[in-house]
Automatic annotation (TrEMBL):
Residues 158-308 form the DDE Tnp4 domain. InterPro entries: HARBI1-like, HARBI1_dom. The lineage of its organism: Eukaryota, Metazoa, Ecdysozoa, Arthropoda, Hexapoda. It comes from Macrosiphum euphorbiae. GO terms for molecular function: hydrolase activity; metal ion binding; nuclease activity. Belongs to the HARBI1 family. Its main location: nucleus. It is found in: Nucleus. Transmembrane segments: none annotated. This is DDE Tnp4 domain-containing protein. Pfam families: DDE_Tnp_4 (PF13359).
Length: 351
């Protein structure tokens, strides 16, 4: 086989010439838009950033130390600008380059900002997402749930929702593909009557069932150990009836079971409403996350914390969406009625 020697070096010569002729792009600082100086009224501000000015100022005060830089060299981005860029990314669910253009920064800067701010907000989890710790708080929750549909002893409503993500890659990527065929995280939350999230688990892949996530969560062990006494958590039929978890009957027989179903369905309604408000407030949770898995998990927790802070400020309804159509909430898991545990709370309630 005859090979001309010159052909072996032509490609190398081209690469050398290309390297020698390479000119680095000039360093430029874009004109940044100051959204604080723009006189947005409260309505326009909430539409663009999904939160009121009061809530944004409160969040900024909590995370400023974690997202600030030590100096202002090279036109450093201010903490308020970082927070607004992140909120705009949550509000649109668009590409990072679009979020960067909104403020006048590069795509790489937008990526770092979203990751940094989301992690800083998620670090506030133990401060704003927590279950009741005192007998008075337990009693207050039981009384509030009882007012909904006269269901006794309930302190929370539990359910899971799927958050669409891109394929995480690797050998375990298919574990994240749910029954609908797309990649997701199956996120579990426990919700109070006023739509606040009291517990969240955002680490399980989309192929996992709700009951599996619950049995491996901290709240399950706390219930089993009797931390909240004889209190109950209401759930759908995807969960197993135990001494602390109660679900509706799939095939009710008689008036007693029908009345029980009506009461428990109305009592667990807050968790469904919470998912609706959360995904309308932050459309990125409906449209999907195209980021690394760890960043996606931080964003889910961060959005939940922001939702709770908004609820604390009586901002319970998300602002209307403009030119964004959200996909409907899908029921992924098929509910099969599971054999009740001996002495389960549901049998005690209907006697």
């Amino acid at each position: 086989m005859n090979i001309q020697p010159n052909l072996l070096f032509d490609d190398d010569d081209d690469e050398i010439l290309e390297f020698n002729n390479y000119r680095r792009r000039p360093y430029t600082v874009r004109d940044r838009i100051n959204h604080i100086m723009i006189k947005w009224d409260d309505h326009d501000f909430r539409i663009r950033f999904r939160l009121s000015k009061v809530v944004v100022e409160q969040v900024l005060e909590l995370i400023t130390d974690n997202i600030s830089v030590e100096n202002q060299w090279n036109c450093a981005i201010a903490p308020i600008d970082k927070l607004l860029l992140t909120l705009r990314f949550y509000a649109t669910g668009s590409f990072l380059i679009t979020a960067g253009d909104f403020l006048g920064v590069s795509k790489s800067s937008a990526c770092v900002i979203v990751r940094t701010v989301s992690t800083a907000i998620a670090s506030l989890c133990h401060q704003f997402i927590r279950m009741p710790t005192t007998d008075e708080e337990v009693y207050t929750l039981q009384r509030c749930f009882y007012k909904i549909a006269r269901f006794p002893r309930a302190i929370g409503a539990i359910d899971c929702t799927h958050i669409r993500i891109q394929s995480p890659g690797g050998h375990n990527a298919e574990y994240f593909r749910n029954r609908k065929g797309y990649f997701s995280l199956n996120v579990q939350t426990v919700v109070s009557p006023d739509l606040k999230i009291m517990d969240i688990v955002a680490r399980w892949p989309g192929s996992c069932h709700d009951q599996t996530i619950f049995k491996n969560s901290n709240i399950y062990s706390q219930l089993v150990n009797g931390k909240w006494g004889n209190s109950l958590i209401v759930a759908d039929s995807g969960y197993k009836n135990t001494s602390h978890i109660v679900t509706p009957f799939i095939n009710p027989r008689g008036n007693i079971e029908e009345l029980y179903n009506e009461s428990i369905i109305r009592t667990r309604n807050p968790v469904e409403r919470t998912y609706g408000v959360l995904k309308r407030r932050f459309p990125i949770l409906s449209l999907g996350l195209r980021l690394k898995l760890t960043t996606s998990q931080a964003i889910i927790v961060a959005c939940s914390i922001l939702h709770n802070i908004a609820c604390d400020n009586n901002d319970l309804e998300a602002p209307d969406l403009i030119d964004i159509v959200l996909p409907p909430n899908e029921i992924i898991n098929v509910n099969h009625e599971v054999i009740d545990e001996e002495g389960c709370a549901r049998q005690q309630l209907i006697r």
